[in-house]
Amino acid sequence: MKHPWIVLAAFVGVSFAGPATAAVYDAAADFSTASNPNGVWTYGRGTIGSFTPLSHSTSFTALAGTVTFDEWGTAGGPFLTPSIFANHTASVLDPSYDAVTFANLSVPVGFAGVHPGPSASFLLQFTAPVTSAYNYSIDVRRADMRPAGDGVGATVVAGASTLLARTVLPAVFGSSTTATGTIALNAGDTVFIEIDPNTEFTFDSTAFAATFTTVDVPEPASALVLATGLGLLGWGRKRR
Fold first, then answer.
1. In terms of domains, do 10 and 91 share one?
2. Which of 10, 26, 154, 203 sees the fewest Cβ atoms within 10 Å?
3. pLDDT by residue (tens digit) across 6-54?
4. Rounded to 5 degrees, what are φ and ψ at 118?
5. Helix (H) and strand (E) counts in the chain
6. How many domains does the chain have?
7. 42 and 146 fall within a common domain
8. The pLDDT of residue 136 is above 80
């Protein structure tokens, strides 16, 4: 073989230098009432800086009791608010799905449904499991279909960084706000998503989706092997 070093460099650099697999943390898909905290997610009430985990798990039914939805709520709170449940079905939860249970709501597939309380926001806490850069995507939408109330406020913060400055969603069905980007987090760092009742909490049903995805980087050993492969390639070129 005329240039065996080319084959060696290609083998070393390509076969062993794959990136680490990205981990995706999805608030709605991961939702569970088995425990709180639930993995990287903690469901709570209060305000950013004054966080109390929700401790009351319950459920409600739809389609004449044939489908059950688990929910975290606030014992003693009006309508158990602040509260959260998730749409794990393959259908939009709206009057066409169940005209009784979801008479005035619309929660898209892959979203969670939340409601703040009269004097406390709904809070979702994400705790970074590993040190990494994270791509984040947050989508907050009004879920109440009635043109009543004064809307909700949505805020997202990570330590001293504001990922979404407080934005009021007006009492118009379909009003929404989003936040996307990349943020570096150390293991144990937290991100808070707050849905507040604005000035009063009626007609404040809200849908949101939130994902945090670790950014692919080469494993340390793979990066070293890749550098070795590139070094062999350069050495071979010099010999020519």
1. no
2. 10
3. 433 444 444 444 446 899 999 999 999 999 999 999 999 999 989 999 9
4. -70, -25
5. 2, 14
6. 2
7. yes
8. yes
